[in-house]
Amino acid sequence: MAAALTLLVSVATVSGAGGAIIKEKQKDIVNVAHRGASGYAPEHTLVSYELGEKLKGDYIEIDLQMTKDGQLIAMHDETLDRTTNGAGKVKDVTLAEIKQLDAGSWFNKAYPQYAKSSYKGLTVPTLEEIFQKFGQSKRYYIETKSPKVYPGMEEKLVYLIEKYGIDKRKLFVQSFSAESLSNMHELDPSLRLIQLLWYTTNADITDEEIADIQEYAIGIGPNYTFINKKYVEKITNSGLQIHPYTVNDKKTMKMLMDWGVTGMFTNFPDVLYEVKNGK
Questions:
Q1: Residue 249 — pLDDT band, cuts 50, 70, 90?
Q2: Who's near 29: CB < 8 A, 6+ residues apart?
Q3: Residues 244/246/252/256 CA torsion (nearest 10 deg)
Q4: What are phi and psi of 91, to 5 degrees?
Q5: Closest CA to 150 of 126, 195, 180, 181
Q6: What end-to-end distance do the CA atoms of the chain give, in Å?
Q7: Where do the domains of the chain lie, and which CATH numbers do they carry?
Q8: What is the rounded distance in angstroms from the CA atom of residue 153 to the CA atom of residue 216?
């Protein structure tokens, strides 16, 4: 009887220790503030990035487009229409022209529950302005958007990373374009690269595809909708990181954490912070 009791206590202790280890690992999950704290503020503005930090996001996520005069700016779309009061393609407009646009008022109209008068008149930041404001030791997660539209984008990005002495140990560069990432890898093999993936049916990936990605990247970023536990385990067992996007509710966050993801993107970094800490 005493031996059985001792065994039960031992099992409970091991189980408790295992649970504690899992919880500690969950705290290490990368919390990427998607376009800043874009659930609460106009995406890809300095205000949104500042709020992402305040709400415990680990990384500032920046989508890059390039202006007619070759300046890298923070914007998700190739066009100005959705997030400014301007119109047309970024590649056809100069930085000076873009700086005249209002990049905040649209948010107040789209999300009145989070509207603030101070958002009106916010401007589109350049990557240089972001680096200047947040500094070289901040954590950045940068995407080369539509690189075929912007020849030389990768070279300009590497140049600015070097110019501002950005800590590459705290930097991720991601893209849907394997060609763009391979180019980045050739330009600077020390960069941590993430291959973005988009699934429209249940996610599957072959060993050959994983091996190809490992030639230049250290992880993948799939849309979470079609992945499952088996998929996540296959990725992590290969040694790759996996950062699904864009996860905004606690239930899904907890599920993905249980599956073993190493990070995730969210418009609400405060919510993910709470989940990571067992709230």
A1: very high
A2: 257, 261, 262, 263, 264, 272, 276
A3: 10
A4: -65, -15
A5: 180
A6: 39
A7: 29-276 (3.20.20.190)
A8: 18
* Active-site residue, from 44, 76, 185, 243: 76
Query: Once rounded to an integer, what is the mean pLDDT over residues 157-186?
Result: 98
Residues 6+ apart with CB under 8 A from 138: 60, 170
Give me the catalytic one of 34, 44, 185, 243.
34
The one-letter code for the residue type at 193 is L
For the chain, percent of residues with pLDDT exceeding 90: 89
Is 243 a catalytic site residue? no
Task: Categorize the per-residue pLDDT at 23 as very low, low, confident or very high, splitting at 50, 70 and 90.
Answer: low
Mean pLDDT to the nearest integer, 86-93: 98
Give the Cα separation of 215 and 27 in Å (integer): 29
Supply the DSSP symbol for 19: H
Characterize 240-252 residue by residue with b for buried, 16 or more Cβ atoms within 10 angstroms of its Cβ, and e for exposed.
Answer: bbbbbbbbeeeeb
> Which spans in 119-249 are helix H?
127-134, 153-163, 178-187, 207-214, 229-237
User: Which residue is associated with the tokens 């099992």?
Assistant: 11
Measured in residues, the chain has a length of 279
pLDDT band at 1; cut points 50, 70, 90: low
- Distance between CA atoms of residues 178 and 183, nearest Å: 8
185 a catalytic residue: no
Residue 7 backbone dihedrals phi, psi, to 5 degrees: -60, -45
Model pTM score: 0.91
User: Which has more pLDDT, 4 or 126?
Assistant: 126
pLDDT for 25: 64
CA distance 195 to 220: 5
